[in-house]
Amino acid sequence: MVSPGQHRPTSRVILHNDAGEVFLLLTHFDPEVGLPPRWLTPGGGIDKGETALDAAVRELFEETGLQTSPEALGEQIWQTSGRWDWSDGNFHTYTDTFFQLKVEGLNLDASGWTDDERRDVLEFRWWKPEELLHTSDLVGPHGLAEFLGQNPF
């Protein structure tokens, strides 16, 4: 759970396939703070003592069942920071560090999900970057749709 005023550093992985699509999860992300659902890449908080790369490998496995190595993810490809405003007037800030991994397909394995993820993840699907630019759904973090539109895989 994110606390009011908290800064939350995360690592995220842009999974993409041969068709140029990216895999996203529709999540509430702590619905008790009143934020509407948004489409996110697999990923999450960086634990104390973890590097962003280590967190990306761990989070990718926990959220998708995909096991990969730090070498396969390589160097970060993007980093962005921002603020999510809550419905009650509070907020939290974030810094998201992104890595990328090309996959041929994905049979999502949710066995590593936490209780919060089981509650929060509503849907998952593959998106074409141009679809993300034109959807009325929220896509997070701020600027992800534009980044993907400018940096096709």
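(the above was protein one; protein two follows)
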Amino acid sequence: MIIKTDIKKLRDPFILVDGGVYYMYGTRVTDDGWDNTVWTCYKNTSGKLDGDWQMVEKPLAVLPKNAVKNFWAPEVHKYKGKFYLFATYYSTLTNRRGCSIFKSDSPEGPFYEITDGTATPPDWDCIDATLYVDENGTPFMVFVHEWVSAPEQMGTMAVAQLSDDLTHFVSEPKELFRADAPKWSNHYVTDGCFLYKCEDNSLLMLWSNFSNSIDYCIGIAKSKNGKIDGEWIQEEKLLYSKEMNNNLDGGHGMIFTGLDNKKYLSLHSPNEAFGPIPETPIFIPVKEQNGTLVADI
């Protein structure tokens, strides 16, 4: 059963469960368009995903002066007892979009930037950063190298090792795969990366692109050796497509474990803020099966 929220015009919904509370972070789209999006947090204390979600009214982060627009894809991860916001903004220092990291003692913020401006390469347009910590406790940022500044204008997924305090890269970014890697894709977009480790140690990456027949959707890439910098194999079967939800496409997914101890896929659907049906966060039960994830509906 798909669980739908009543939150409208919120993209990239990322769920953090902490202290018996659900927190949802996302890109709130204003009527002024994509340049005036806002990082937003919603809070749900009911213990149920279909319970009441209340917007946290105070600003999520204290913005640096160079952050001026394109406030996209906020994610909050708990790491070594603190909370870290991974997010995208357009910087006047680079005149590009980049990914930055902020820190707070509370999941509600305020978050303060701990990187020296955006952490991603200053000559790249980068979005949708996420945190991955491997079995040795080593932190990595996985992020999108946008098609607008990528070779051949083909978006890629990239990874760089982070310092233990998450303040900077300690390795050069490495390309993992291109937008045209899977057979199902027909577009140059790489969106919404999220890493998931299966019980059998299979390492998966959820990501979004467009398909020939089903529009915006969520695919799965699998690391051949179970490591973040290994070879990534694209699975043919999609994790989410519009056939699952009344012909409404959607994407930018992530996986979380609910208070009911069940696993869910969080995404926005449809992929349209200003259409007749505005995009809305939804949750779909998922399960592990043969070293991958499948919808459980």
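Reviewer note on protein two: The chain has one domain: 3-295.
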